[in-house]
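Entry 12.
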Amino acid sequence: MINSVNSLYLSERQVERKTGQSTLDQDAFLKILITQLANQDPSKPMEDKEFISQMANFSSLEQMTQMNKALTGFLDMQKDNHFLSHSQLIGKEIKWEKIVANPSGETEMNVQDSVVNAIKFQNGKTKLVLETGEVIDTIQVIHISRPSQ
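Predicted 3D structure (tokens):
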């Protein structure tokens, strides 16, 4: 009888692995805890220390989940702020450094100037779109001024 119950449980468990989630959420943790309490051996009930430890784990899981949500929101807000703060560069004249190869094949730093036409967010970084059509990283900028008339 026990073997048939075990084989039934194991066959259901394998199906769950194929279709289930790869991480445990709060609901899954509580279901496991409730199942464990419901199926414990009455002659050897779960000790208080074990139960408290599992509840502490649940509490930690809840706190980490909330912290993860808060940090994700904070990072998204920082990206937006960083992007928006660079919008003040639109229409400004900038000097920026560009690495170029000279005729002998050596690289050297060349200072270019252009006007910023737009700002775009690409691959997690804020980029400046120049009037020449070039797209540069903000770290390349060495000077910002009002456009000369």
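Annotation: The helical segments are 2-19, 26-38, 48-85. The radius of gyration is 30 Å.
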